[in-house]
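re: that chain from earlier
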Amino acid sequence: MSTSPLRIGTRGSPLALAQAHETQAKLAAAFPELSGDGAIEIIVIKTTGDAVLDRPLADIGGKGLFTKEIDDAMLSGDIDIAVHSMKDVPTWLPDGIHLPCMLEREDVRDAFISNKADKLWDLPEGAVVGTASLRRQALILKRRPDLKVITFRGNVQSRLRKLEAGEVDATMLALAGLTRLGMADVATSVLDTHEFLPAVGQGAIGITSRTDDDRANEVLAKLNHEQTMIRVSAERAFLTVLDGSCRTPIAAHALYTGDNTLSFQGLIARPDGSEAFEASRSGAASMKSAQAMGSDAGHELKGHVGPGFLEGQD
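^ sequence. v structure.
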């Protein structure tokens, strides 16, 4: 193996850096030659999604806002691998880049944080919930149309500061992110996946590399957690079929339910929560079967709604 440092590209938020350091630790544990000082270098790259915080993601391009600059750095040879939250990774990747590795998935559930109520559904009428997620907005308004949901962007720490300052009555964050930051205790309560379906890939860390980089691909092959890869691949297959617009709330969750059995549940909704459609599948927990289940569920839902629904125009 090359003796030059292995360069990890990442966003600069505290959560992104925590994920990069988790990846570094796993690489060092798996490969003694990567455990010494300077063997792995973490390179922070600012993305469009990090730079523009005053508008909803859908209004500034949606797909790829947290990955484009990192992809460019990889293709230009400035980094060797890149660490991403899987829910930020588009279903398409640039030519020359692939996704050979996911780390073992954390808890996929959403955390509710508030000093006004113990649970999301107990918020008083008209309470304001801050979130940057159309999925969370739709699922909240589907059950509680009396609540007001506003765009609420920024990293975990800045959102919690805004909550503390009283800008909103509550917010929601991925429990996985809080756990990786050592902040799981800030969650007021946690929502079960049956009542609040998570985002595609939520809780999973994905690591990309150049398709022709033998060194990077060798180390990532050893790090890959196959069960996580299969679960997330089912969810991404669902998203691939349905993702006509970044303005469409989409949720999915694939889960091992027994010996070599995978269950899948997917949902699409209107941003205002007025309509939602769900589909579920169960089958063998193989990559081929998982992708087929997600794709088939996506086509089922696509058949229930017109193209206007998926483009946010219907």
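The longest strand covers residues 250-258.
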